Amino acid sequence: MDAMSSSLEVLQGGWRKGPWTALEDRLLTEYVQQQGEGSWNSVAKITGLRRSGKSCRLRWVNYLRPDLKRGKITPDEETVILQLHAMLGNRWSAIARCLPGRTDNEIKNYWRTHFKKARPSRRARAQLLHQYQLQQQQEHRQYLNALQMLQQQHHHHHNLMESQQLPMPQQQQQQHSPQEEDQQAAMEAHMNAMAMTNDDMQSYDCCYPPVMSPSALELPVVVDDYDDDALWDSLWRLVDGSSGGDSGEC
DNA sequence: AACTTCGTCAACCGCGAGACC
DNA sequence: AGGTCTCGCGGTTGACGAAGT
Q: Source organism's superkingdom (predicted)?
């Protein structure tokens, strides 16, 4: 085969490196079909393939697996990637687990080419923050309304009980109408989201719901101009992994 | 048409965690 | 207990084609 492989073949410690040939792919695929995934270091012994176990695993996981989805990342997938990356950071394998058919390598590449250096303009940042603040305010109002309604209902119950001189049995206390339960559930979800810390987020290996409340993103509600810049800078430093304070703008 | 720059993606490298002896 | 092996992960590199000059 191979005009290509012979020119690209690199041998280091007996292992071939560089692009895989069709023959190598076939050998590896047959190996996995017969032996299953794993024991990658025995691929070379069994098939005669001059590839390291590490290289075999990578080739299988990123390219040969039959359940891989080919083609461009869809807008829906992009949304999931963005949201999960906001929660999990560069934990590509965890993100990939939530996107069936996509590999960590694929997602990592996609992120780096599409978002890594795509720091939004000052104007765009201001718009995003404004949008986010409005959403926050709206959610907060809904939360307060729900809280107020619950309190009113509670007082109403309480007054009723007092006026009738009846004790309030615990079981009865916990019985709510479906509407009340919905409100309570919504409120609890809201409070849980608000209480979720970064550590909590880290523990979500999979699969946090793709659509999430902005409140769970944990951005500050009010960000002045100075903090705004500092926030974005620190975020991008985190992504860049650089610590230099005076690194240039993207 | 030739050259340069940019975007994409496959593949490699180094490291850490866990299993095994 | 500690040394070695294996596997998986995230970061990085390099090849290659497309787009721009």
A: Eukaryota
Provide CB contacts within 8 A for A204, sequence distance 6+.
Answer: A87, A88, A94
- Token couple for A216: 């769970």
Task: Show which of A43, A64, A85 is a domain's final residue.
Answer: A64
Decide if A244 is inside a domain: no
Residues A136 and A195 reside in one and the same domain: yes
For residue A57, which nucleotide's C1' is closest to its Cα? C7
Q: Using the CB atoms, write b or e for A179-203: b if 16+ within 10 Å.
A: eeeebeeebeebeebeebeeeebee
Q: Which residue is nearest to nucleotide C13 (CA to C1')?
A: A18
- pTM value? 0.56
Q: What is the CATH number of the domain that holds A110?
A: 1.10.10.60
The answer to whether residue A245 sits within a structural domain is no
Residue A250 belongs to a domain: no
- Residue A108's nearest nucleotide, by CA–C1', is C10
A11: three-class secondary structure by DSSP: strand
Decide: CB of A60 under 7 A of nucleic strand C: no
Q: Does A235 map to a domain?
A: no
Protein contacts on strand C: list nucleotides below 7 Å from a Cβ.
5-13, 16
The predicted-structure confidence for A145-202, as pLDDT tens digits, reads as follows 777 777 777 666 555 544 444 333 333 333 344 344 444 443 343 333 333 333 334 3
pLDDT in tens, A95-145: 888 888 898 889 888 888 887 654 444 444 444 455 555 556 666 677 677
- Domain residue limits at A164: 125-219
